[in-house]
């Protein structure tokens, strides 16, 4: 049998599954975004009209869409660097000779990643309860007045960012830990002989050698954080004052609360274009950094 034909024979089932369960739904959603498909069209297809780019232009004139986009950018710009910094710090600690019981700590720090996000978000909501929460109880012990963590427009998004960082940093930690273990130890031995401190080793050896891994972690984290939904849905319902309404939460309300499925599909593709653009920009900046 021809090797090329055999190769296509083996990959055809996988391509068929991808086409049926991914490509076709994406094409159907894009077609839906070009119509005014809503609850009336769902009941009677005669009410369905082709509007072209009307949904996209209408979204760009909707203040709530821009507010949700701003909230999402706030979440990404603060949460991504914080998550990477915490992940790198944990990976450095686990890779150091000072860490004992490394296996236990790796499992414990990775455990939040595999927990059910809805269940954990409910627990965190009680932790940050204004009257009965453990956080405000601890603050009261040191004389700090209670803070309305999830009911204040100023504190709700930072609280969700803190929860998201705690929930997701273990995944990046494992990737960064693998990158750290791939760095030749001879470089550190030579640096110690030359009298380099820990911070100089981190700046001149660890971080430069981790650039490809850091780029991968940054892209994965950024694309994931742009898809913020479960945290505000469970903890704040997009409030207060829409301060935690993300683009995905806005899409959810458009599609399943107001049944504007055409507009909701348009939101999804605008978010896809945004993530694609940010990812391409990060890849270009990463290549420039490697060439420099």
- Number of helical regions: 14
Average pLDDT: 90
Rg from alpha-carbon coordinates: 24 Å
What level of helicity do the residues show? over 70%
Index terms:
292 residues, MetI-like fold, 0% strand
Q: Mind explaining what this structure looks like?
A:
The protein has 292 residues and is mostly helical. It has one domain (62-291): MetI-like fold (Orthogonal Bundle), CATH 1.10.3720. It has helices at 3-33, 39-43, 54-60, 63-95, 102-114, 117-127, 134-141, 156-181, 185-193, 198-209, 211-225, 230-235, 247-257, 261-291. Helix 4 (63-95) packs antiparallel against helix 11, helix 4 (63-95) packs across helix 13 (247-257) and helix 11 runs antiparallel to helix 14. The model has no long low-confidence stretch (mean pLDDT 90).
Give a brief outline of the structure.
The protein contains 14 helices and no strands. It is mainly α and 292 residues long.
Helix and strand topology:
Blueprint: H1 3-33, H2 39-43, H3 54-60, H4 63-95, H5 102-114, H6 117-127, H7 134-141, H8 156-181, H9 185-193, H10 198-209, H11 211-225, H12 230-235, H13 247-257, H14 261-291
Helix pairs in contact: 1-14, 4-8, 4-11, 4-13, 5-8, 8-11, 11-14, 13-14
